[in-house]
Amino acid sequence: xxxxxxxxxxxxxxxxxxxxxxxxxxxxxxxxxxxxxxxxxxxxxxxxxxxxxxxxxxxxxxxxxxxxxxxxxxxxxxxxxxxxxxxxxxxxxxxxxxxxxxxxxxxxxxxxxxxxxxxxxxxxxxxxxxxxxxxxxxxxxxxxxxxxxxxxxxxxxxxxxxxxxxxxxxxxxxxxxxxxxxxxxxxxxxxxxxxxxxxxxxxxxxxxxxxxxxxxxxxxxxxxxxxxxxxxxxxxxxxxxxxxxxxxxxxxxxxxxxxxxxxxxxxxxxxxxxxxxxxxxxxxxxxxxxxxxxxxxxxxxxxxxxxxxxxxxxxxxxxxxxxxxxxxxxxxxxxxxxxxxxxxxxxxxxxxxxxxxxxxxxxxxxxxxxxxxxxxxxxxxxxxxxxxxxxxxxxxxxxxxxxxxxxxxxxxxxxxxxxxxxxxxxxxxxxxxxxxxxxxxxxxxxxxxxxxxxxxxxxxxxxxxxxxxxxxxxxxxxxxxxxxxxxxxxxxxxxxxxxxxxx
Length: 503
Description:
Elements: E1 9-12, H1 13-16, E2 23-24, E3 33-35, E4 51-52, E5 60-63, E6 68-71, E7 80-81, E8 87-90, E9 93-96, H2 104-111, H3 114-121, H4 133-136, E10 140-143, H5 146-189, H6 195-200, H7 207-233, E11 264-267, H8 268-271, E12 272-277, E13 293-296, E14 313-315, H9 317-321, E15 328-329, E16 334-337, E17 339-340, E18 346-348, E19 356-358, E20 362-367, H10 373-381, H11 383-391, E21 394-396, E22 399-401, H12 404-409, E23 411-414, H13 417-459, H14 474-490, H15 496-502
Parallel strand pairs: 3-8, 13-19
Antiparallel strand pairs: 1-10, 2-5, 3-4, 5-8, 6-7, 6-9, 11-23, 12-20, 13-14, 15-19, 16-18, 16-20, 17-22, 21-22
C-alpha cells in the first residue's frame, strides 16, 4: 500500500457510517415522495421521478433530506442518490444518514468510483445480484480529515460539472443521430428515398406483379407437397382437395400511408416462407464447450439490424439437431424479439456460421424469393412497423409480448425487386456515414467515463486538493466517534428485572 496523505487514515466502511434500518408502511405516509429503483438513473446519481407513497403497497425504508440512498440490487448499475427531500424508498435501498466522520457528498462520490462498484459486485453470489450492508461494511477506504472531504467534494463538483456538460452535449448529438436514423428508415419504406430513382427507371416487375407471382408460387409449392403426400400414401387426391389450401392472411391497411406507384401492401405471412419462433433451451448450453452452434438470445439482437455476439453462448450439434431442431436458423433469416421490453430488436443472420439456433423470445422471418431479407430487416426497424407492432403488443407483469399471429399479419410495403435493391443501396450508404459519427460519439463518451474515474481516483488518493496541516486528522476524529459510541452503549436503558427495579 502506498503511503497515505497527511491526516488520512485507512478504515472499513462500517467504522465511519451506519445505515438506517427503519421500515415503515407506505400507508402511514401516503403523501410522501416515494423512490423506487426504477426512479433512479444508473451511474449518474440522478433521480428521474418520484411517486406518491400511497401508490405503493410493500414495506419501505424512510429517509431524511440529505441522506444517501444506495441501491443494493444489481450493484453494477450503481444507483446511488442523495435526495434534497425526505420520504420513503424501496427496501432495495440502503439508507445512510448523517455521519460525523463522513461528508455525505463525499460518500456519494465514493460509492460511484469504479473500485467500490467492483467490490460490491464481487460480494453477491448466484442469480440474485443483491448485496447487504454486512457485505459492504468491509470495504476499505482512505479517509481524509473532515475539512478536506469538504474541499474534495467542492473540487469534484467543479470538475465533474464541466465533464457532465460535455457528456450531455454528446448524448444530445447521439439522440439526434438516432432520430435521423428513424427518419431515414421511414423515408425508405414509404418510398420517398427512391422517388428520384423511380423517375429514371422502369421496373421489370411491379410490386403488385411480384406479389401475384409470390402467391402463385406459394400455392404451387403447397399443391406439389400435397400431391407428393398422396403418392407416398398410395391415395388418389380427393375431389376439390385444392380448396383446402390455407390462404395467407391479407394485410389490414387501415390508417397506413399511401404507397408510391408500383408498390403494394402485403402481409408478413405472404412475403415469408414462414414466421415462427424459437424453442426454450435446456439448462445446459454446450456443456462440453465445443462452441459449435451459436445460440441467439434477445441480448444478441440490436436496433441497427446487426447481431451483437459479445455475450455469445453455444449449443451442441446433438441439441441443435434434436431438442432445438424446430428453431434452427440460417444465414439471411431475419430475427426479431417478440418479448421485451424493449420490443423490435432486429438482425439479419450473417454467414459467420452455417447454422444457428434461437430461443423462444425470438421470431424468424424467412423471406421468399423476390423479397430481400435486408428489406424485411429495415422495414421491421422502421417507425412505421415498430408503431404498428407495439400498438398490438400485450404487457403482463412488466413483460411485453407479441404473438406470431400479429407478426404474420404485419403489413409490409412491397416495392419492385430492383427498387428494393436501389433502396437498400441508398440506406446502406447513409447508415455507414451515421455509424461513423456514432462511433466517434461512443469513443468520446468512453473517454469521458475514463476521465471521470481518473478524477475520482485522484480525489480518493489525496491528489486532487492540497492537504492543510491545520485540519484535524481523521484518526483523531475517528477516536472521538468511537468514544461517543461507547458512551452511548454504556447508558442504554436496562432491560428485564433491573428495568422494573429501577422503576
